[in-house]
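Need C-alpha cells for this chain, all 265 residues.
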Amino acid sequence: MAKLSGGKWARDEYRRIAEDGTILRCLVGSGVHGLSIAQQDDRDEMGICIEPPEYVIGLRSFDQYIYRSQPEGHRSGPGDLDLTVYSLRKWMRLALAGNPTVLLPLFVPREHVVLTSPLGEDLRALAPSILSRQAGRRFAGYLEAQRRSLLSREGKGRDVTRPELIAAYGFDTKFCGHMVRLGMQGVELLETGRITLPMPEPARTWIRELRTGQHTMAEALAAAEVCERQIDALLKTSPLPEHPDHEAAGKWLVDAYRRAWAGEW
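Here are the C-alpha cells for all 265 residues:
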C-alpha cells in the first residue's frame, strides 16, 4: 500500500488530536477564492484545533496534522483532499504575523465552513484584534517572492511543478494567478480590513482567464506591480493598526484553552 503523505505530521497520534480538538475547519485554496478550474484543482481545507494539556504544559508537542489523499511524491489533482489542521497556538502566531493563507478562516463564508464550534465562532469574531498593517507587509512579501520565482528560469520558475501549463501556455498560469490574487487581496485587506471570498468581480474572472491562458505573463506582472504600489501607499494610510493586539489575542488564547480543557467548547 502506498504511504500517505504528510511526513511526520501525518502520524495517527496527531490525527486523533486534530479530530478530537478541532474548533474550526473550512475550505481554503482556489475553491474558496472562486478560482477553481475544472480538471486542475484539488480541495484544500484548513482546520484549527486545541491540543490536550500534556501537549501544551507537558513534554509532548503538537504543531499540526497534515493529510493528503495522494501518496508521497504524487501531486494532488481533481477530487483529492489536502488538509492541514494547526494547533490553535501555532495558528495564532502565524495569523498575528499576517500570514495570508492562515488568515482565510476569518473570512470564509458560512457555506464553506466544514465544522465550527462556539470557540471557532469566537475566534472568527476576534479578527479586529488579529489584523494589522503587518499583514499587508506579508502579502507584499509573498507577492514579491512569487514574482521572483516566476521570472526565474525564463518563466518556468524555481518552484513550479506544473509542466503541463508551461507546455500549454508558455508559463505557469496557476502560479501567476496566485501572485495576482495575493496582490489584490492585500490591497483589499489594507483598505477595508476584510478579504472578500470568493473574490469579487471583475478580478475573479480576470484571474480565471489568466489561468486558462487568456492573458499574458507580462499582463500579470503589470497587474502585480500595480498592486505592489497600492500596498506600499496603503501601509501608510490603512485604517488597520500598525500592529495586532497581542495582549487581547493572548488573553483570549489562554481562556480558549481553559474552556476547552474544561469541556466548554
